[in-house]
Amino acid sequence: MSLSRARIPFSLVLLLATAFASCTPTGETNDAASPLKFAVRYDGELRPGPLDGRVILVIAADSESEPRFQLRSEPARSAQGFGLDVDGWVAGDAAVIGGEAFGHPLERLSELPAGEYTVQAVLNLYETYELASGHTVKLPPDRGEGQQWNRKPGNLYSTPRTVRIDPARSATIEIMLDQVIPEIDPPEDTRYIRHVRMRSELLSRFWGRDMYVGAHVLVPEGFDEHPEARYPLMVFHGHFPSDFGGFRTEPPDPDLECQYSERFSLECYNRIVQQEAYDLYQRWISPDFPRFLAIEIQHPTPYYDDSYAVNSASQGPWGDALTYELIPYIEEQFRGIGEGWARFTYGGSTGGWEALAVQVFYPDEYNGAFAACPDPIDFRAYELVNIYENENAYFDIGPFGRIERPAHRDWLGRIAYTVRNENHLELVSGTKSRSGGQWDIWEATYSPQGDDGYPQRLWDKRTGQIDSAVAEYWKENYDLRYILERDWAEIGPSLVGKIHIYAGDMDNYYLNDAAYLMEEFLESTTDPYYAGVVDYGDRAEHCWNGDHVNSNAISRLRYNTMYLPLILERIRQSAPAGADLTSWRY
């Protein structure tokens, strides 16, 4: 998730079980077949083969944008997608997607109404990783885009074209991957924003190749003029940032064309975003503003746009790499104080879970977590699924009927899509937790590693049937409420005053339900009492972060300033004797 819940509206692919030539598909089949086929080939001059990866076919009913950008969780708003794993795919040979393919939103090609459509295919390229565990896996490396297969540099795609499709007629539609997505230029350093990238020894050992982590560092006003100063560090967790977000040294562009925000029902929201970014700059350089280092971490993995900042069986020791390698490196390079009392974490959604998780797993390395709208922090409310008691994730099933579980609502409770919709989109986007989607990254982070080297499924992706053994592993290792309750006698004293949780009571993804369960534990625990905050926004959606005055549209743009008064008070209360409280207050 992200502040807009990056459920990755563009992560959809297809899953199928037809084999052709040297293309080796994997997946589950469907008995209802159509005689129609799509034969996808690639131009060998663009990239020499053989190639491994995921072929993604997208069929769009309109031309609002290229079809590859129209795959969404919402079945009423999504293009149609199908996908196929390819291994050792040779130029000239066809990857065939036919009537047995599993799709989203329609599960079967035969269900597609006959008509005129725009079609496009993409190859999400995989590379081979020889893991330290002895497993060999094939995964899509991030190439600077934040694990977005439809934007990933180096991926091949076809020029969109309009075709007549009739699933009832026997025909083969030829598609040639004749384009390659270009490289992304890295951001350049400025006076206030610097960029770092370092090789992680821990991650390189796990993945069997050089692995890097990085960050965008917002340095304080006067950083170069005050070499004697050492600074507290604010770690802003979230999704893959292309640069440090929400900071702009120029006033809003007067020629900027207004864009309407459907999410917030606001005209010219893009101008509001620019104004807020400029306002942050003005506050940042003001004489009475405290001088901090603020960082946004770049830690994409071959499974997602970020690692979830914790150690993981399938993703590796990201928690240790960030806490013990990257953060000390940044503090050394940019004169951070370098002690736990002077480090703070904050973020929303995915970043909210990460901010709380690193505080729980590294209680003495950070001095406060501000977790807004965190991803599920109690797996009894894994959105609307209780992974310990429910047998099926997609349906609440009774002896005579069943009801489907929603996954997204608006502030009035209107449903946009369900848990099944979202998971089926991921299933056609990639097998073995490789979709780059939200449920798959939770699985890649929380699950034990399977015999094949990929994460074990929490539930059957087609049916939703839950694996109780995997659920128990999740509980013992990543259920933050359970871990706090289990280990409170040991870690509780180090967490007093550090936990701050915020959620809207109409969170779009029902994340407030887990916050209620966490609050029950925290408020009932007195040895010691947690002495923190759990707060809710009335009728507030994802991602409410504690602002009772402004709307989400504004408060989501103010993370870098809204928690500063609480951080300063925390430093005043908890800094050890002799701590540097002055060099950074110029």
Averaged pLDDT: 93
Would you count the extended β strands for me? 25
CATH class of the largest domain: Alpha Beta
The major beta sheet can be summarized as: 9 strands, mixed
N- to C-terminal distance:
37 Å
The portion of residues assigned to helices is 10-25%
**Domain count:** 3
Give the low-pLDDT segments: 1-31
Assign the structural class, choosing from mainly alpha, mainly beta, alpha/beta, alpha+beta, or little secondary structure: alpha+beta
Gyration radius, in Å: 24 Å
From the 3D coordinates, which CATH architecture of the largest domain would you assign?
3-Layer(aba) Sandwich
Q: What is the molecular shape?
A: globular
Counting copies of identical and different chains, the oligomeric state is single chain
Notable traits:
586 residues; alpha+beta; Rossmann fold; nine-stranded mixed beta sheet; eight-stranded mixed beta sheet; 25 strands; 22% helix
